[in-house]
Amino acid sequence: MGSTGSIVAGQDNGVEVNIPNEASGQENGRFDVSMKRHHSQPASNFLQMIQRQKHGDVVSRPTANIRSSGSFDPSSSIFALPEANDKIRKEYETFKFTKDQEIQALQRKEQKLDMENNRLRAELQALNRQCQKLRTERDIAMESSYEATERATALEQDRQKIQRQFKIFRETKESEIQALLHAKMQLESQLRGLRAHGVATGDDHNFSSNNVADVMDTSMRTTSEWWAAPESEATSLFGSYAQLRNGSHVGFAESAADIREPVRAESGPDLSLQSGDKQAWLTTSANLSSVLPLANTTEICGSTLLRCYLAATPDTVNDLKCFINHPNIRLLQNACEKEGYHLTLIHFTDLNDYNQEQDECISDDSEKSEIIKLAIKRTSMFFMFVGNAVGPYTDVECQEGHFNHPGWKSSYFYLKQSTNVENNSCTTLRKQIIGSNCKRVASYTESEDGCQLAVNNLMKAVQLEFGVKLSDLNTSNVSDSEQHEVSCIDEMPSDEHMEQLQREIISTCDKMLIGQPFGFEKCYERLDEVVTSPGPVPPLLISGTKGSGKTLLLSSWLQRLKNSSPDIIILQHFITGGKSIDSDPVIMLRRLLTQLRQHLPLANQPPVQTFSTFDVNRLRETLPRWLEQFTSRRNNRILLVVDSLDLLKDAQRNFHWLLDPLHVGVRVVISVGVDSCPEEWRHIPTLHLEPLSIQSVKLLLNHHAKSRDVSIPNTLERDVVSQCRTATTCHPLYVTLLSVVACSVCEKNISENFFQTCLRSRDPVELYQLLLRSVEHQFGSKITKTCLKPFFQFLACSRNGLSETEILSLLPDLTWCSWIAIHRQLSTFCVIKESVGLITVHNSEIAAVLYDRYVSNDVHLKRCRQKMLAWLQKRYEVVVTPRNSDMLLWLLHKEEDREKLGEVVRSPMVFHLMYTRGRACEIVRLWNYLNEEKRTIAQEYANALKLAESNASSGRSDDVTMNDVAQMYQSLGRFLKDLGLMEEAVAALQKSLEILENILDPDHPAVADSLHHLASVYSQWGKHSHAEPLYRQALELVECAVGRDHLRVAQELSALVRTARKTGRHEVADGMQQRMVSIMRKNSSLGSSNLKRLLKRAVRLEELTLGDETLETAQALNDLGVLYQMQNNLDNAESFFKRSLKTREKLVGISHADVAQSYHNLAAVYNEKKQFKKSAECMNAALKIRTEVMADDDVSIIATMKYLAFLYKKSKQYAKSAEMYKSILELTEQKHGPDSVPAANAMINLAVSQCQQEELDGALPLYEGALSIYRKNLGSKSPQVYQTLRNIAVLLYQKGEMAGAAVAYRQSMGGSDTKPLSTSRW
């Protein structure tokens, strides 16, 4: 057989198949397979089977008999096909049956599974329906639960509200019942007294038994106690500070309305002797002008600006420039800025009398003269270098600076000695200067000598005004162990700039309202109703448009309320703008809480940590709680007044508690804008400011005309009145602007065509636009482009204004001459104003106009801010001051420059300046903006202070000493205490204490401050055992330094009292509290802040008294006498006043206003010492001098006569007292008219004096005349009318006219007779 298989068909249809076996071991690799086909099997099937077997498709067949010969065995089983088929068939059938069974089983199983699936699907659908049902029920249940919770919350709120209302109702009714019972007892007592004396009474028995007893006693003694001014309102020789100290005040006038006149009277002549700015003195809240006449007491009055006018003759201009460019001048200005003050040097070296250059803002010489006069009038010091030539404006400067107003301001003249021939004008000028009694005249030869003299005088003046010395900046030259001023610690530093601004708002608005009828009388009545109404009263909302006078109304009403109701506790806050710091809710709430805390005795004051937090949520919860607790424990009513509350950040959320019922003793008055009022507040009772009436418009126009000394023609008046008839043109701002334009037309400064254009304006915005175009046209395109427009841009982009020095530094093309002219025009048009030494926009209306006109978009705004930032960063590199730190941080925040902002805010010096000036909340806000945690802040400052300490100890830093580092650590510790980081606070304060003990002495008074602050941290932490030893150590140091009766001692005792009570040692606390109360009574006139400022000033004054006998020395002696008198050290006060008097008599002669003032103060000391005759002699001497040097109708003369009359009465010289009161009455009638209220006051004083001499017949007509004047001017229900009727009742009772006395007294109590008696003339 070959290599391929062959198939041979035989007879038996057998087939022989040769299949190669590749797996066999045969050489040919082949094997033979013999197979026999069954007869019933087709050949083709057989071949297919063989083929399958060849390819391995059949592997389970029996093994064939393979032979090599190619034949096969017929008997082989493999070829038994029928049997195999049967077997296979059986197997197949079996297999088929099995499979059929399996299929059937599977089918049955499938049917079963289908049934199960259907059942499960039905169950699932049922479960889904049940789940949906349950879900619906759950939602319903949750909604019901939420509704129930809401109802429960509402019910709880209603329950609390009802509880508060019931509490208020109960307290109100209890107070009413007590008042009724007290009144009943008084009436019964009065009735018994009257019946006992046989006085017939009607149904209304309101006659005072006390007064009756006084009258009965007068029948047996020469004097009686007549009605006089309330002691709380009487004016003492020393003004308000001495009154507060003594508790019982000296009254110089017997009428309540008259007692305010001596204050204004004293402020007149004494102010003319001021070295400071008169206007700053007029804005003071304390009446110190009569005792501090020359020194502009900045700490008390709040002035932070000192302007000096520098002048020179043409040949001494170089000397003046040498003075201006002296290095110490710049250092002195930097030192002032570090303390928060502004030193401004005004000089007109740009005028053509100096360098022959023409200023574009000035048209002619007369205009320049007016600008010079205006500039000098705005200054408080005058420096002039006089050579051998006289310029065209030299006479104007000398006349305005000194000759026309001698003593008005401190004038310094420096006469240059030269061999050159003087002209006649110069010789006359020199003689006039020498003969003008000016004691500040010096001569020099070399320019450097004259410059140094002027620098020394300026440094001395700055030291007196601000307490700033040149060494304050160059701290490396100052010993760390220099004298420390012991004063009370400010537990929570306040922002002095903001406080001064708040005081200035009150004083400025009060001055604006004098003589200006704004039609506020009805508003005053509505506001008075809020205060006087019994029971709980909802807040009163004052609503009005911009410029309608909301701030003016509130400030003037508060001043009236303080004078009429001194017992009311007033908490006030004025918001000046959305960008200002006073619009921060944390600042505002902490300030209100501080005001409320100050009305509590030191022993009852809560710890500062109760409201020193920076969390506004806690603060807004604390204020209502404190108000309720305060009014429930004391009888005083509290009045909370907030102006422009809608400008406060999140006002609606932070003051939502105003909508809840407040305590019965709390009254709230807030003002908002009409458009910006929150919706929830619109249902509060509202007082809407109505437009001015036609009469008010006319009066306001005439007032402006009178103030500018012009006469308004009838045509202009009709035009103004006809224009001011709509809602937008009839409020004070628009009327004021139009009145200013009308006055300028009369002065020929504005054309009538422009005035007619202004009459077509529809609101203040349009009128302001016209005025700005007029200003631009007046100064020309060059000045407008280079100076005016940039100035407006910088002003609009600033936070709270710019100082004059900053303005001239930002605008290098602007000269002083141009600036004074621009300032005059813009101030006249109410575009800008001066506030706390800064130039700011006048109101919100002009602020919006300036932004729209000169900034207009964010691109210009950003460009302007970038310029200011570049300038500020240069200033920041030179010296770090509170002013540039505040401006820089604010601008970087607005520009969102996080990197640079982080660098500045991490500076320990910036942090120290911001914290000590009450800006800690702003620091917190900036750190929150930078997304930093509290502990990260603490670590950042700790690392920075370690570096500063290293530099200071090694001498690598000239700007920071170890003493500064200690103060920074102290500020950091206090700040961390407020943040609640007690461990870090203790570490910082311990470091401060360690540094102070090393560089000073462990017993130095400065160490007491660190001990106190460290103890306060332990006390707040609850570790009283650690705090008490530190408090006691601080107390010992303070007592050793200032004695046992200092206010600081009381402060340490107060802390020890709280600590003792916390630890349960109440007996120890009671003993210390008694001592503390005794100290407080001795120093009741001085608060801690006032004492700190006054002692700081005393140290300066003592330094100045060590020099030669000069006017400044005499003034320093006088001021020291005042300070010692305030501390009840009368012997030392008398000594200093006598020294001041002696020095003044020697320098200026016996007939000088300064000498009169020294006599005045000596009289005050003798009055305090009960030496009334000596006091009267000194006051008589003061009166004689003032009569000689002042006009006959001067108010100071009248005030001095009142003081003298009072002293005559106290010294029992009644005849002289009556004669003096007669003279006062004559002068008052000449000055104010016979039907004026001051004349009625004088009549009351004279009547009281005559009654004391038992001249009853002469006193009765005076009382009747005063009563008639009071009714005519003040109304029949005024307090003056009732008090006068009470005096008449007492007088008639003493005369024996019982029926007339009863009628008069009934009328004095507000009653009226149904059956008038014939003797009743009242």
From TrEMBL:
<feature type="coiled-coil region">
    <location>
        <begin position="99"/>
        <end position="144"/>
    </location>
</feature>
<dbReference type="GO" id="GO:0016055">
    <property type="term" value="P:Wnt signaling pathway"/>
</dbReference>
<dbReference type="Pfam" id="PF13424">
    <property type="entry name" value="TPR_12"/>
</dbReference>
<dbReference type="InterPro" id="IPR056886">
    <property type="entry name" value="NPHP3_ab_dom"/>
</dbReference>
<dbReference type="Pfam" id="PF24885">
    <property type="entry name" value="TPR_NPHP3"/>
</dbReference>
<feature type="repeat" description="TPR">
    <location>
        <begin position="966"/>
        <end position="999"/>
    </location>
</feature>
<feature type="region of interest" description="Disordered">
    <location>
        <begin position="1"/>
        <end position="28"/>
    </location>
</feature>
<dbReference type="InterPro" id="IPR056885">
    <property type="entry name" value="TPR_NPHP3"/>
</dbReference>
<keyword id="KW-0175">Coiled coil</keyword>
<feature type="domain" description="Nephrocystin-3 alpha-beta">
    <location>
        <begin position="303"/>
        <end position="467"/>
    </location>
</feature>
<keyword id="KW-0677">Repeat</keyword>
<keyword id="KW-0966">Cell projection</keyword>
<feature type="domain" description="Nephrocystin 3 helical">
    <location>
        <begin position="696"/>
        <end position="841"/>
    </location>
</feature>
<dbReference type="Pfam" id="PF24884">
    <property type="entry name" value="NPHP3_hel"/>
</dbReference>
<keyword id="KW-0969">Cilium</keyword>
<feature type="repeat" description="TPR">
    <location>
        <begin position="1114"/>
        <end position="1147"/>
    </location>
</feature>
<dbReference type="Pfam" id="PF25022">
    <property type="entry name" value="NPHP3"/>
</dbReference>
<dbReference type="GO" id="GO:0005929">
    <property type="term" value="C:cilium"/>
</dbReference>
<protein>
    <recommendedName>
        <fullName>Nephrocystin-3</fullName>
    </recommendedName>
</protein>
<feature type="domain" description="Nephrocystin-3 TPR-repeats region">
    <location>
        <begin position="867"/>
        <end position="1104"/>
    </location>
</feature>
<feature type="domain" description="Nephrocystin 3-like N-terminal">
    <location>
        <begin position="534"/>
        <end position="660"/>
    </location>
</feature>
<dbReference type="InterPro" id="IPR011990">
    <property type="entry name" value="TPR-like_helical_dom_sf"/>
</dbReference>
<dbReference type="InterPro" id="IPR019734">
    <property type="entry name" value="TPR_rpt"/>
</dbReference>
<dbReference type="Pfam" id="PF24883">
    <property type="entry name" value="NPHP3_N"/>
</dbReference>
<dbReference type="InterPro" id="IPR056883">
    <property type="entry name" value="NPHP3_hel"/>
</dbReference>
<keyword id="KW-0879">Wnt signaling pathway</keyword>
<dbReference type="InterPro" id="IPR056884">
    <property type="entry name" value="NPHP3-like_N"/>
</dbReference>
<dbReference type="InterPro" id="IPR027417">
    <property type="entry name" value="P-loop_NTPase"/>
</dbReference>
<keyword id="KW-0802">TPR repeat</keyword>
